[in-house]
UniProtKB/TrEMBL annotation:
InterPro entries: BUG, Bug_dom1
Residues of the signal peptide: 1-21
Keyword field contains Nucleotide-binding: no
The family this protein is said to belong to: Belongs to the UPF0065 (bug) family.
Classification via Pfam families: TctC (PF03401)
Residue ranges the record marks as coiled coil: none
Domain of life, source organism: Bacteria
Name of the featured protein: Tripartite tricarboxylate transporter substrate binding protein
PANTHER family: BLR1237 PROTEIN, TRICARBOXYLATE-BINDING PROTEIN
Keyword Electron transport: no
């Protein structure tokens, strides 16, 4: 009899422990999230557009929400290394990642055997901003307009070079789509991130820079980089004097990228709601909006559900674009 009672006690304790373990994350999320520092993984090197926006979000959440949010760069493989680390993290809300079109929409169609699917293994939490791609050149360059680039490329196909943050990124593909629209052949030089490409463009080692606007904005403001065109349908509010590619003679050309906060699949709904609410509060603040726009991006708040729909739609759409470009990562 005693043995039976002991067995029942052990079983009851085990079941109670299991139930507690299953409900603990939700209870923590609903109660005192966050009660320790939150890591925001940045899947690209310091200095690029993703890094700039990530550090802005981390800083402002720390200031306004009184959370401790720390940006942590985990760069490599077109952003997929940082995403992989986020996917593998425990879904507690203490490991978030700043994802964007390159690593979540395009990367899965470029890299063979990625251990995750963005629509299955991540939870979309909060859209932060979108930005056009910019085509620019050194202030000392002979190219004054996009028409100059097209003329030079037609006169000597393959001799005009452009640097991008990496093979198969949305920025590289924007360059590829521009080549197709203009009927020209450029020579693509991929770099490991935006900043190395920017430095070589400033030095004249490549003729053109194809970049996110945030990555190039500081050098544009300093007068060291000459913007030729933005790839969005509308002009950038941060660069109102810079024409669009469409205005430069290539009707309906429209390519932009987006940035947003994600978490591992299975993250408690209370955490998703809390992070979404706080990020959206930031995006409504005049100083935050101004800071984002100063970097050449456009702040845009969404519900978590709207952001998840954007991810799924773009993930399906860009499969064909990647295949048509011929871009591959072995």
């Amino acid at each position: 009899m005693l043995r039976q009672l002991l067995s029942l006690s052990v079983l009851s304790f085990a079941l109670g422990s299991t139930a507690f373990a299953q409900t603990a994350p939700a209870a923590t999320a609903a109660g005192a999230y966050p009660n320790k520092p939150v890591r925001l993984i940045v899947p690209f090197p310091p200095g690029g557009g993703t890094d700039i926006l990530s550090r802005l979000v981390a800083t402002k959440l720390t200031e306004h929400a009184k959370w401790t949010v720390v940006a942590d760069n985990k760069a490599g493989a077109g952003g997929t290394i940082g995403i992989t680390e986020a996917v593998k993290a425990a879904p507690t809300g203490y490991d978030l990642v700043m994802g964007q079109k390159d690593n979540l929409v395009i990367g899965p169609w470029l890299y063979k055997n990625l251990p995750w699917d963005p629509t299955r293994d991540l939870t979309a939490i909060a859209h932060v901003a979108y930005t056009p791609v910019i085509i620019a050149t050194s202030a000392n360059s002979k190219f004054k307009t996009l028409a100059d680039v097209v003329a030079a490329a037609k006169a000597a196909p393959g001799t005009v070079t452009y640097g991008s943050p990496g093979n198969g990124t949305s920025i590289h593909l924007a360059g590829d789509l521009f080549e197709k629209a203009a009927g020209i052949k450029l020579s693509h030089v991929p770099y490991k991130g935006s900043n190395p490409a920017l430095m070589d463009a400033l030095a004249g080692n490549v003729d053109l820079l194809v970049s996110s606007v945030p990555s190039a904005m500081a050098q544009i403001k300093a007068g060291k980089l000459r913007p030729l065109a933005v790839t969005s349908a509308k002009r950038s509010s941060s660069l109102p004097d810079v024409p669009t590619v469409a205005e430069s003679g290539f009707k309906d050309f429209d390519v932009s990228t987006w940035y947003g906060v994600f978490a591992p699949a299975g993250t408690p709904a209370a955490v998703v709601s809390a992070v979404n609410a706080e990020v959206n509060k930031l995006l409504a603040m005049a100083d935050v909006r101004a800071a984002i726009q100063a970097q050449g991006a456009e702040p845009e708040a969404m519900s978590a559900a709207q952001f998840a729909t954007l991810l799924k739609t773009d993930h399906a759409k860009w499969k064909g674009i990647v295949e048509a470009s011929g871009a591959k990562i072995e």
